[in-house]
Each structure stands twice: as structure tokens, then as C-alpha cells.
């Protein structure tokens, strides 16, 4: 069914409704209209990295980890799994008359905000700091979730529109000021890409942007989204965001005025309670019947496109597909590809033949919560890092375990003295051949500010350091002097300080999903070569002083495109157990832009995957970012000693720059840099690789 047909059906249905009935459908928990045979429907569902908050589901690595794969096909496959499991759960719930929250087919994912500041607590929900990477992966998530059949399998939602990325504790009151250049160059490209790809919904942010609430912004919603971009789907408010109009932003004086403003700008669906005042606003003449009905039509168009009004499409998907072995394999592959090897002095991979005793130490070593990130489903089995190592070694070696410390408090047992697990950890390290030190964060330390929509309260990070309890643990264990690998489970930039210097290897596992422990173990023992790349810059703690204030939405000094310092680890960086060399590269013009042919060789001794990355710089342009920017990437696989050729496409607009008016223009001499990392000297030194430079004629 195409959109025009679905809309015609929606119009006929809405015409049969009273104004009050149509108004009742504009809130997320839309009631049934029995006289018209319309069942109740709850629009609120989540699938950030697996179907969330409604029981059992396959739990993939957190979104930021999926971004680290630089793998479009894998992100597409993950979203397909989410849609299939979503359908299965919807079918089972509907058959039993359950139309509760988190049971529908309208998923408020993906989060495509730009992770512009490393302190933002929700950054790990995003696809990183780069608009191009975010666009490419976000598009594949939408296509995988929605499918390409005659009936939409599930509906995706691009959020949070727009210029939203912290601070969390100010989001209900804050006005994000962004100039035209930053809007066009950074904050809006991913949203446009998803609209062009057919995303069914867009969610507005809590904050104001340039003075207008994002759920009632003429510039964002009318002029840009529905005007320039031609978006035809429905618009949903973030949860209780419309209430912020009168309670916090003070742009209206009462709920009825907030309803009038939001509906008038095209916010069709209210997550929250303010649209309970739609009829009062209508009776006061603040909102028209035509406006109410138009929003209802848009919403029922989506329901018809999903086939849940007059079709039994996908009704044969059984509950048994949920968390199936096939789906868990996809989650395991995602965890493998997402891990980023940040440092290795040769200690990795570990040899099982040389280890009789190994110590696994740290608050995240046997932590389930550190596997999951946030917005997660329930798994029937969790494989922690400790369990993954235990399963791998079996009876071949002794695996010792110590929690070492609490994730943030100074003691594990309340009645004990501070650092009550340190002596145990040190003792185990002393008698071991190697130490795996598993530290990091979890959703209680970085995440969304708690409100009616979530039960936890964490918010933004104050700094880039691990809690003092973990810093003390790392120092004491590293003093023992045994070969030590730090496994970092976190969703954002972390500075390990001297521990990072002293450790023999550092493996970033992110929040790797419920199969994460197996994937990490397979990497540690060499069954899998690590191949993830950083989708964000890892900064030194001291680098924060070089950045604008957290509340400053200017992009100057932020992310790899504009940062002028030397980071801890750069965007696009990640080691493997092998060595991928780009031997040759050439480019030629085509209708859409450029085709770049790359010959690459695995000159190492083991099979590996890697990521070819192409960056562009417009030499002589006053409008170009300070540093080269990503314009193409491709994940590749190469056997040891093998050489192969690969083709990458670059769109014309990627070679343009953005001026102060927000316009894309041709300017400067375009140079391409082809390799497996950024072209700067520090990235090349860390990666021990060379870059091929091409000038675009």
C-alpha cells in the first residue's frame, strides 16, 4: 500500500469521527472507538538496540557500539531483527487483548542527535559525533526496521528534532542557539537523510532551538521538515515536552495555549498529557477542527501503512522468533565488530597454552547492567566478561574473580572500611599469569535525566574520569606488575589517566549487549580480530578546558572536525591483530559524484576485518571545517596475505562546504585521503599505517 492510498483510507475513517473522537486519537495511548471498530493503540514503543521494556527480546550492543562497527549491512540486519521481534510481540499481545505501552509497532528509534560533547549522558544512545556516519547508519536502521514490502513492518522515528544533545538537567528549559552554518553542517543532515529514506515519524526535542520550542517550531517543522524536505509522516512530541511550553519555557500561559501552538505547527501526536486539553482549546477557538482532523489523518495513515487497520500482514510471525539462536548470532557478531582495540603492546591475543591462572577483576567484570546500556529489553541469558572467559578456558586454566570495588562507592559492603575489596584483587593478581581488569560506567552513571518516562536518574557526566573507587583499584592492581589488559565498558569518552599508560592493552567493549562477554572473550583469546573504530573522539580530561561551555551549541572546538588539540584517541581509530595496507587508490567522476577504487592488502598473519575510510578537505576554503571530514567508508574482510579491490561512492554534496547562510557551495581544491584512519599524523602514528592522497580534478 502506498502513502496516497493509506491516506485516502485514513481520511474516510476520520470523516466518520466526531471532533472529540478525532481529538482523542492524538495522544500516545489512543483509546478505542468501538462504534467504528477502531481498537485502542499505544504509540509509545522503543527499540534503540532491540525491542525494549516489554519483556524478552534480543539485546544488541548499545547504539554507540553499533556505530563503532561502521557496518551498514549489520545495522540494517539488526533493525530487521528488531522489526521481526516487534511484530511477534505485537501479534502475541494483540491476540490476548493487550494494547499496553511498549506493545505497538511505532518505535521511537533511532536517536540521531550528534554526540557533540563527551559529557552528554545520552550520547551512548546516538550513532556518534559525525553527521555523515550518523546519516548512513541511521538510514540503514530505518530501512531495516520499516522493510520494503507492501506493508510497513514497523515504523521508525528520527529523534530528537533538533539541536538536542545536553545538558540533561536543563533540557526542559534550555534554548539551544545554533547558527545557520552549524544547523546545515552538523545538526540537520542526518534528519534530512532519514526523511529522504522515508522515515515514518519524527520526534521533537524538549529544548527550544533559537527561541522556538522544538515541538512547535515554525523554522524546524514547517519551513524545513514539511517545507524544504517534504516530510509526509507524523510528528510526535517528546514525552511531556508540550507541557514544558507553559510550565518551563514560558512561551504559553496555559495547557490550551500549548495545545494550540503545538498542533498549529504540526505536532500530531502528544507523548504526555497536554493533548487531553485539545477539546478545551477547540471550544475556546484556539485550535480548528481542520487542524485536529489533519493530525488524526496523518496518524491513521501510519496505522494503515502498518497494516494494523485492515490487513493481517505479518500475523504469522510467532513469538518463538524472539531471542532465537539466529538473532543472538547477529547480536554476537555486532558485539565482535563493535569492540575497539585502543592499545596493544603485543600482549593480545592471549595464549591459552601459556596461562594456568588468570584473574578477572573489576566492578563490570560480572555485571549484567554494564552489558545493556539503556532502553533495553529482557534477556533470558547474559554472558558477562567473566562468564565469557570462564566458558572459553573451561578446565584448562583457573579463573579467579574479584569485584575489586563498587562501580562508584568507596566500598562494596556498607559496614566495611573503604576499599574493602582491594586486598582480594591484589592477592589474586599476584598469583595469576595475566589480569583482565574490567572497569567502566553503566546507565546509572551516564544516561537520560530521570522523569515520568524512565525510572533511573543519572544524567550527564561531570568529567571524563572513572569514579575514584575504580581509579584506586586500577592503580593497585597495575602495581603488581602482571601482564594486564583493561577492558572498558562505557558509552562515551573516558580518560584512564596513568592506568591507560601502564596497562599492556586497552579494549573498549562499550555496552556490548547480552552476548558481549562471549565476543570480548573471543577477542582476548584471538578467535576474533578486533575491528571496531571510534565513532567519537576520546579526549584527555584536560581537553575539556579547550572546548566551549557545555551549553554553547557552537561547533567550534568540538568533535574531530573542529577540535584543534591532540586527543587521547581520535575518531576513526581502532587497531586489529593484523595490518591492513591501502596500496592504491584512484577516483573517477560519475553522475552522483565520485567513485573511488581502493586496493588493500592484509599484510598480517591472521584474517581480519577493517574499515576503509575516506576523508575530504577543501584546501583554500574559508568555510571548510578545520580538519578533513569523513565522506565515505566501507567495512572489508581480508584473509592473511590477501589483496583485494573495493569501490566506494562519494556524493557530490559531500565534497561541498557550508557557508554562513547554511548553503552548500563548491569552494576550494578538494583533496581526498584514503586509508583506515584519519589522515592526521597522530592517527597514522597510532594506527601504524599510511594514507593515500588524491586530488579531485
What does this structure look like?
The strands form seven sheets. A six-stranded mixed beta sheet has the order 9-14-13-12-10-11, sandwiched between helices. The longest helix has 24 residues, at 72-95. Helix 4 runs parallel beside helix 5 (131-146). 57% of the residues are buried. It is an alpha/beta fold and 697 residues long. The chain folds into three domains: 3-320, TIM Barrel; 327-562, Rossmann fold; 580-695, Sandwich (Immunoglobulin-like). The mean pLDDT is 97. It is globular. A hairpin with a 5-residue loop joins strand 20 and strand 21 (664-665).
Number of structural domains: 3
Uncertain segments of ≥5 residues (pLDDT<50)? none
- Main β-sheet, in a few words? 6 strands, mixed
Please tell me the CATH architecture of the largest domain by its name.
Alpha-Beta Barrel
CATH class of the largest domain: Alpha Beta
Helical stretch count?
A: 21
Quick rundown:
This protein is an alpha/beta fold and 697 residues long. It is built from 21 helices and 23 strands.
Q: What labels describe this entry?
A:
globular, about 700 residues, alpha/beta, Rossmann fold, about 30% helix, four-stranded antiparallel β-sheet, TIM Barrel, Immunoglobulin-like
Topology record:
Layout: H1 3-15, H2 19-24, E1 29-30, E2 41-42, H3 63-68, H4 72-95, H5 131-146, E3 157-161, E4 175-176, H6 180-187, H7 189-196, E5 201-204, E6 208-209, E7 212-213, H8 218-228, E8 234-236, H9 241-247, H10 255-265, H11 278-283, H12 289-305, H13 325-338, E9 340-344, E10 357-361, H14 369-372, H15 385-393, E11 398-402, H16 422-430, E12 434-440, H17 468-479, E13 484-489, H18 498-502, E14 505-508, H19 516-524, H20 559-562, E15 580-590, E16 593-602, E17 608-619, E18 629-638, E19 643-651, E20 657-658, E21 664-665, E22 669-675, H21 681-687, E23 692-695
Parallel strand pairs: 3-5, 4-6, 5-8, 10-11, 10-12, 12-13, 13-14
Antiparallel strand pairs: 1-2, 6-7, 9-14, 15-16, 16-19, 17-18, 17-22, 20-21, 22-23
Helix pairs in contact: 1-12, 4-5, 4-13, 5-7, 9-10, 13-19, 15-19
Amino acid at each position: 500500500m502506498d502513502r496516497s492510498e493509506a491516506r485516502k483510507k485514513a481520511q474516510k475513517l476520520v470523516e466518520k469521527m466526531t471532533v472529540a473522537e478525532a481529538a482523542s486519537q492524538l495522544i500516545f495511548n489512543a483509546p478505542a472507538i468501538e462504534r467504528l471498530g477502531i481498537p485502542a493503540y499505544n504509540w509509545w514503543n522503543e527499540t534503540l538496540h532491540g525491542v525494549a521494556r516489554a519483556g524478552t527480546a534480543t539485546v544488541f550492543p548499545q547504539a554507540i557500539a553499533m556505530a563503532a562497527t561502521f557496518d551498514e549491512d549489520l545495522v540494517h540486519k539488526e533493525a530487521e531483527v528488531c522489526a521481526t521481534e516487534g511484530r511477534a510481540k505485537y501479534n502475541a499481545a494483540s491476540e490476548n487483548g493487550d494494547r499496553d505501552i511498549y506493545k505497538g509497532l511505532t518505535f521511537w528509534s533511532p536517536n540521531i542527535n550528534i554526540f557533540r560533547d563527551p559529557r552528554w549522558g545520552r550520547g551512548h544512545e546516538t550513532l556518534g559525533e559525525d553527521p555523515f556516519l550518523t546519516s548512513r547508519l541511521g538510514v540503514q536502521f530505518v530501512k531495516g526496521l520499516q522493510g520494503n514490502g507492501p506493508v510497513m513492518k514497523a515504523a521508525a522515528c528520527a529523534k530528537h528534532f533538533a539541536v538536542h544533545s545536553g545538558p540533561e538537567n536543563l533540557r526542559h528549559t534550555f534554548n539551544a542557539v545554533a547558527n545557520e552554518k552549524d544547523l546545515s553542517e552538523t545538526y540537520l543532515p542526518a534528519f534530512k537523510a532519514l526523511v529522504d529514506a522515508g522515515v515514518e515519524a519524527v520526534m521533537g526535542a524538549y529544548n527550544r532551538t533559537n527561541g522556538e520550542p522544538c515541538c512547535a517550531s515554525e523554522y524546524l517543522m514547517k519551513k524545513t521538515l514539511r517545507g524544504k524536505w517534504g516530510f509526509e509522516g507524523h510528528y510526535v512530541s517528546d514525552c511531556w515536552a508540550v507541557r514544558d511550553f507553559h510550565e518551563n519555557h514560558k512561551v504559553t500561559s496555559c495547557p490550551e495555549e500549548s495545545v494550540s501552538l503545538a498542533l498549529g505547527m504540526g505536532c500530531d501526536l502528544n507523548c504526555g498529557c497536554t493533548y487531553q486539553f485539545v477539546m478545551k482549546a477547540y471550544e475556546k477557538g484556539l485550535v480548528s477542527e481542520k487542524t485536529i482532523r489533519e493530525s488524526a489523518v496523518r496518524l491513521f495513515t501510519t496505522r494503515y501503512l502498518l497494516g494494523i487497520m485492515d490487513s493481517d500482514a505479518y500475523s504469522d510471525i510467532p513469538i518463538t522468533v524472539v531471542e532465537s539462536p539466529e538473532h543472538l548470532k547477529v547480536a554476537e557478531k555486532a558485539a565482535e565488530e563493535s569492540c575497539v582495540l585502543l592499545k596493544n603492546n603485543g600482549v593480545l591475543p592471549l595464549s591459552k597454552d601459556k596461562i594456568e591462572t588468570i584473574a578477572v577483576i573489576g566492578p563490570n567484570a560480572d555485571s549484567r547492567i554494564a552489558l545493556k546500556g539503556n532502553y533495553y529489553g529482557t534477556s533470558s541469558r547474559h554472558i558477562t566478561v567473566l562468564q565469557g572467559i570462564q566458558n572459553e578456558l573451561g578446565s584448562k586454566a583457573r579463573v579467579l574473580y574479584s569485584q575489586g570495588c563498587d562501580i562508584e562507592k568507596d566500598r562494596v559492603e556498607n559496614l566495611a572500611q573503604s576499599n574493602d575489596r582491594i586486598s582480594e584483587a591484589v592477592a589474586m593478581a599476584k598469583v595469576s599469569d595475566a589480569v583482565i581488569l574490567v572497569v567502566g560506567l553503566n546507565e546509572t552513571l551516564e544516561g537520560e535525566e530521570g522523569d515520568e518516562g524512565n525510572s533511573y536518574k543519572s544524567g550527564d557526566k561531570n568529567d571524563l574520569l572513572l569514579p575514584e573507587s575504580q581509579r584506586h583499584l586500577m592503580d593497585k592492581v597495575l602495581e603488581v606488575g602482571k601482564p594486564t589488559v583493561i577492558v572498558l565498558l562505557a558509552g562515551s569518552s573516558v580518560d584512564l589517566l596513568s592506568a591507560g599508560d601502564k596497562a599492556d592493552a586497552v579494549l573498549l567493549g562499550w555496552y556490548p549487549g547480552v552476548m558481549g562477554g562471549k565476543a570480548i572473550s573471543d577477542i582476548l583469546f584471538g578467535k576474533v580480530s578486533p575491528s571496531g573504530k571510534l565513532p567519537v573522539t576520546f579526549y584527555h580530561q584536560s581537553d575539556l578546558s579547550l572546548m566551549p561551555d557545555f551549553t554553547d551549541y557552537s561547533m567550534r572546538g568540538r568533535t574531530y572536525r573542529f577540535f584543534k588539540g591532540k586527543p587521547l584517541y581520535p575518531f576513526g581509530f581502532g587497531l586489529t591483530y593484523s595490518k591492513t595496507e591501502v596500496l592504491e587508490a584512484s577516483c573517477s567522476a560519475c553522475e552522483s559524484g565520485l567513485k573511488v577504487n581502493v586496493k588493500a592488502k592484509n599484510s598480517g598473519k591472521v584474517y581480519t576485518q577493517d574499515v576503509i575510510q575516506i576523508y575530504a578537505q577543501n584546501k583554500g576554503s574559508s568555510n571548510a571545517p578545520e580538519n578533513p571530514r569523513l565522506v565515505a567508508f566501507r567495512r572489508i574482510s581480508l584473509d592473511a596475505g590477501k589483496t583485494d579491490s573495493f569501490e566506494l561512492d562519494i556524493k557530490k554534496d559531500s565534497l561541498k562546504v557550508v557557508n554562513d547562510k547554511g548553503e552548500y557551495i563548491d569552494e576550494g581544491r578538494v583533496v581526498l585521503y584514503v586509508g583506515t584512519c584519519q589522515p592526521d599524523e597522530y592517527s597514522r602514528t597510532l594506527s601504524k599505517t599510511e594514507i593515500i592522497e588524491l586530488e579531485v580534478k
